[in-house]
Amino acid sequence: MGIGIPKEHQGKIFDKFVQIERREEDYQGTGLGLSIVTSLIELFKSEIHLESQENVGTTFSFTIGFEFNEEKSREIINNIEVDLSSNYVYNILVVEDNKINQMVTKKIIQNSNLNCTIVDDGYAALVALEREHFDLILMDINMPLINGFDTTRKIREKGIQIPVIALTAFDKQEVSEEAIAAGMNDILIKPFEPTKLYQIISNQIIKKENAD
Q1: Measured between alpha carbons, how far is 123 from 121 in angstroms, rounded to an integer?
Q2: Could you report the per-residue pLDDT of 128-142, keeping only the tens digit for each?
Q3: I need a labelling partner for 60 at 20 to 30 A (CA). Which of 76, 91, 95, 168 fits?
Q4: Residue 136, strand partner residues
């Protein structure tokens, strides 16, 4: 499968949020697949192995021994916990005026062992960006004083190229054109699933790191 993995990268591909030399036209996954597969296989006291030749392909193999016990198998599956945390602690700035949304978003982010700073409006976000480094910004669109679009424009005018993800309850198509024009990188529709948030965060940070 695939196009093969260089030997120097073969030890990395089972880590979380790792994708080797991904092209823009490739599927925009999270880089969690092999990490999750490895965790599942380890639950059955086995190991996963790979044979890979660059520009040819990769073969993964493992052996699992099963007992013919349907109840025990169901218990194992139900007790599987998928760890979506990253070894690197990213610093996320959340710009959101709604207190309930602040608490929900903060809980989701901290459950992934990411650092989270919350500000109530766009002007406070500009101040925070002058004082601290952030890896990504989650930007609510509808806020008092200054909306998310105008805040993002001011961020870009300062030459700050941190990925900005729009948070909105509107349909994505309704805001996508203005979001792109403002300099935003992606849109996340509220309410959102934690896995969707992790996917967007990892995709945008990896894309920014590759661009640098």
Answers
A1: 6
A2: 999 999 999 999 999
A3: 76
A4: 92
**How far apart are the C-alpha atoms of 208 and 202, rounded to whole Å?**
10
Q: pLDDT digits over 90-130, tens only?
A: 899 999 998 888 888 888 888 777 889 999 999 999 999 99
- Give DSSP secondary structure letters for 80-143: -------SS--EEEEE---HHHHHHHHHHHHTTT-EEEEESSHHHHHHHHHHS--SEEEEESS-
Domains of the chain: 7-78 (3.30.565.10), 91-211 (3.40.50.2300)
How far apart CA 167 and CA 184 sit, in angstroms, is 11
Nearest-angstrom CA–CA distance, 25 and 173:
21
> What DSSP state is assigned to residue 67?
-
Tell me how far CA of residue 188 lies from CA of 80, 131, 139, in angstroms.
28, 26, 10
Dihedral angle sign, alpha carbons of residues 16, 19, 20, 21: negative
4 confidence band (pLDDT: 50, 70, 90): low
Three-point CA angle 16, 21, 22, nearest 5°: 80
